[in-house]
Amino acid sequence: MVEPSPQTWTLRLKAHKTTVLLHVDPLHTFSFIKSQLYDALKDTGLKHPKTHESILLPDSPDNIQFGRPVDLLNPQQGFQLADWEIPAVESEEDTGKGKGKAKAGKGASGGAKSGIADCPKGAGLKNGAVLAFRWVGDGAWDGDDDEAFEDGANMWGVQLASFEDAYGVENQSDVGGGREFEG
Q1: Residues 21, 127: Cα–Cα separation, whole Å
Q2: Is 143 helix (H, G, I), strand (E, B) or coil?
Q3: Phi and psi dihedrals of 102, rounded to 5?
Q4: Per-residue pLDDT of the chain (183 residues; tens, 9 = 90+)
Q5: Coil, strand, or helix at residue 150?
Q6: Radius of gyration, CA atoms only, the chain
Q7: Secondary structure of residue 60 in the 3-state scheme
């Protein structure tokens, strides 16, 4: 467990109607963060929002996937698989460029895992960032490729809270993309 300090960040990790707040070092790897999340879920459990039945955890924290908001300013757009979760793809074509900059240029934007993008700071996240999490068999995702569905952004099972549900007042949830003060 990471002790909160002025240098730690808080990540908001969401699944179904549950939000887990984790204090993390911005340079910890996502594998480490997944293991911290896994430990927290083992201690508290996760229940399906409609049936209230316990959801079985995966065999390993490595089976957890993180998703980023499609649009920080419009949380209703849902989530998409995060860049660092996409496995590195080796190209079998030899372009004859050798080992120069052209081949070394595949980073987080090319879909390949790079060491620098394997931590919240390197992935461009900020303190208070919201990530969705899931695994096969979590009650929302059956392991099929998100691209095969028309509405792949909703394959995360995240249900954003609204004040209207509890108080009858219309107010939307946020996923940490509010405007920053410039002055």
Answers
A1: 11
A2: coil
A3: -65, -40
A4: 788 888 999 999 999 888 999 999 999 999 999 999 999 999 998 888 788 888 889 999 999 999 999 988 887 888 998 988 887 654 444 444 544 444 444 443 444 455 668 999 999 999 999 999 998 876 666 666 555 444 445 578 888 776 666 666 665 566 666 555 555
A5: coil
A6: 18
A7: coil
* Token pair listed for 135: 């695994």
* Cβ atoms of 2 and 8 closer than 8 Å: yes
Q: Would the pTM of this model clear 0.90, i.e. be above it?
A: no
Q: Shortest CA distance to 106 belongs to which of 29, 64, 95? A: 95
What domains are defined for the chain?
Answer: 9-87+114-167 (3.10.20.90)
Q: Is the dihedral of CA 119, 38, 41, 2 positive or negative?
A: negative
Find the helix or strand (DSSP H, E) in which 69 lies.
strand 65-69
CA distances from 74 to 105, 175, 180 (A): 32, 8, 16
In 67-92, which positions are buried (b, 16+ CB within 10 angstroms) versus exposed (e)?
A: bbbbebeebeebbbbbbbeeeeeeee
